[in-house]
Design a protein that fits this description.
Enzyme class: transferase
EC number: 2.8.4.1
Largest sheet: none
Keywords: Transferase
GO molecular function, one term: coenzyme-B sulfoethylthiotransferase activity
Protein name: Methyl coenzyme M reductase alpha subunit
Shape: globular
């Protein structure tokens, strides 16, 4: 997705700030993965993976310090919510 910005410079100038570009690319990858797999959690994982790859390539996400809040969700994508089961079910008891 980031290669599209290099091919179309007007798009790069239209979207000010790296955090906006990162969000557009992450939304595209998250939605396409979620639609392809039919699993929302996998789409969310693809969203955060795209954010990580964008930061790895550009060393930052944006100008305004959004780096921390854009990276906080990947660790609990596949966590078990309280209404999905009891702790005893996890232990197999």
């Amino acid at each position: 997705g980031l290669e599209q910005y290099e091919e179309f410079p007007a798009l790069l100038e239209d979207q000010f700030g790296g955090s906006q570009r990162a969000a557009v690319v992450a939304a595209a990858s998250g939605c396409s993965t979620g639609f392809a797999t039919g699993n929302g959690q996998t789409g969310l994982s693809a969203w955060y993976l795209s954010i990580y790859l964008h930061k790895e390539q550009h060393s930052r996400l944006g100008f305004y310090g959004y780096d921390l809040q854009d990276q906080c969700g990947a660790s609990n994508v596949f966590s078990i919510r309280g209404d999905e089961g009891l702790p005893l079910e996890l232990r197999g008891a």
